């Protein structure tokens, strides 16, 4: 059984920390709850933490890690019998994000005035998406909020785990690209101007490709701000374009057609929407409503459209597997077939949960494979770039020395 280092707070807000053995974080949270403590953070001893790419900056929103801890603690405190007002008071105090802290404080005020929790959460769509709000609403109506909080914590945790795998896999290639850019800046602003002076002093003919390299160095050394403004403007333009409907469709189309990336997109979106459907159906949400909610939370427009069209067909009497079969090119192999098995056995939610776990692993493996492919490609590109630069400079230098010697 692994050993966890944890940070916790009492219901009165006092800090606490220590070590405890537990099967997983959920069991750790329950064990601490029995001691009157709320789990804030936990780390398994002996396991190296990955790079934390999440920063709590207001305009970046609330990190998924904080949402997971908040949801888990919400479930733990609710199961102890604490009132919603007291729960959200504690959660707002312990929150690190100013945006989440303010939202939780406002939710506490709304709940204290008699408003439903789901309605109060719905005012903050950037923090609590439609899936989150609708599951809470179902829990309120069915009296199963305790179970809903556990399902939501699992849902958020799996989403975060998949996204973290993608971020961690892309970290090393990103570092290589950054180093390449830094080396390029040094060469352009320092090395090339010196070489330009050297070739000018020789007063001998030089090849056109060497002149092109020297001209580029001369231009960028005088307009060095373009090295920063150019990439920033390009990224800004791309971000603005993909925020438009046509731009989003164009990006999603491109991602689905790129050789290696398409598999990651298909498996990642399949895993996300399958787990969303599984969580919603297990919570008691009708299938049609579950499809409509999932269509608004899935990232890719093609998957969203497929779910909307499937909901329309199901209203006409078709089964889920049949309604999605028209879009079999979007889903990874076996998804529709397993859905059909779930419908025949009456265990759709269970089958979907197992499918989600499988495709989350598949998506993670696909990301790692892409990272492995990118690394040698970057190294080859770097080698070719260095080789071209060396040839452009050394060859004319050698020719010039021979010309001078003769």
Notes on the protein architecture:
- By secondary structure, the protein is mainly alpha-helical.
- The chain folds into two domains: 150 residues, Type II secretion system (T2SS), domain F (Receptor-associated Protein, Up-down Bundle), CATH 1.20.81.30; 245 residues, Receptor-associated Protein (Up-down Bundle), CATH 1.20.81.
- It has 16 helices and three strands.
- Strands 2-1-3 form a three-stranded antiparallel beta sheet.
- A hairpin with a 4-residue loop joins strand 1 and strand 2.
- The radius of gyration is 28 Å and the shape is elongated.
- The relative contact order is 0.07.
Nutshell version of this structure?
The chain has about 400 residues and is mostly helical.
Helices and strands, with pairings:
Elements: E1 3-10, E2 15-21, H1 25-34, E3 37-44, H2 64-79, H3 84-94, H4 98-112, H5 117-121, H6 130-142, H7 145-202, H8 208-222, H9 226-242, H10 245-257, H11 261-282, H12 287-297, H13 301-315, H14 320-324, H15 335-345, H16 348-405
Helix pairs in contact: 1-2, 2-3, 2-7, 3-4, 6-7, 7-8, 7-11, 7-16, 11-12, 11-16, 12-13, 15-16
Protein name: Type II secretion system protein GspF domain-containing protein
Membrane topology: Multi-pass membrane protein
Keywords: Cell inner membrane, Cell membrane, Membrane, Transmembrane, Transmembrane helix
Distance between the termini: 80 Å
* Number of continuous helical runs: 16
Poorly predicted tracts of residues = 48-59
Structural class: mainly alpha
For the largest beta-sheet, the strand count, sense and barrel status come to: 3 strands, antiparallel
CATH homologous superfamily classification of the largest domain: Type II secretion system (T2SS), domain F
Helix content: over 70%
How many strands in all? 3
Mean pLDDT: 79
